[in-house]
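Problem: given the chain below (153 residues), write out its structure.
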Amino acid sequence: MLLPVTALALRASFDVRYINLASRTDRLAQIKSEFARQGYLNPKIGVQAERIAGHVADRRFAAAGALACTQSHVDAVRSITADVGLIAEDDCQFLRALPAGELRQPSFRWDVLMLAYNGPFNHTDCVGRTGARWCRVISMQTRSLYAVRRAYV
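Solution.
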């Protein structure tokens, strides 16, 4: 069972963004459903998930998709006005509640906190906090859900 994040605790210092191509209305519905389960589409709490328009790839170039995706993430990061921004791609699915405690009061120094990605991590370079385990990423390949500190940008 998924537990909802206490969005009230995050509203003072958090921006929430999701990247979505205008043509992918199916993914728009999916990510809105995911954020609603986490409590981010309730206007009473003050925290709103905001859509960032995804860049469309120019298919004439081999790396067009990766470039368009990167440009979309740059736009999302630049849109952050709070101390921390949570950024998700529109096909992200939350398998558990977001780590609100770590996002509000970090147990270690982080600039970018990867919550979903592809890539290896160093099993010996991990820290723990009340059941959570955070490990340093060696070479991150994708970024579908992450938090970033505005001061880092």
